[in-house]
Amino acid sequence: MEAASYDHRLALRAERGFTAVKNCGIGEVEVANEEPSALSLAIRDEWQRALVSALSDLDALHREVVALRFYGNFRLEEIAEALDLPIGTVKSRLFYAVKKIRKNILAMEMA
Asked: What is the reported pTM?
C-alpha cells in the first residue's frame, strides 16, 4: 500500500469524524471523534489544493464532465443528455480526465 493513499484514507476517515478503531469482541467498531485533528485538517487542505490544481489543468470539456459527475452527482446518462453528447463520449472524457487528475496529483506528491 502506498503511503500517500494510506494518508489520504486516514484524512478522509478523520474528516468524516472517525479516528479510532476499537475491537469490541464481535468486530471492529469505529469511534467518532468530535473535532478533526490539526494534522487531518492540514492533510485535507493539502489534498484539496492538489485536486483544485489538477482540475485547473483539465480543458473545459473534461472539467465540465468531472464537475457534473463528481460535484453534481449526475449519472452518466444525465450528463450525456445535459451536454447533448453520446454516452460513449461522456465515458471517454471522464476516463481521460480522471487519468490526468491522478497523474497530476501523483506528480505533485513526488515533487
From this structure: 0.61
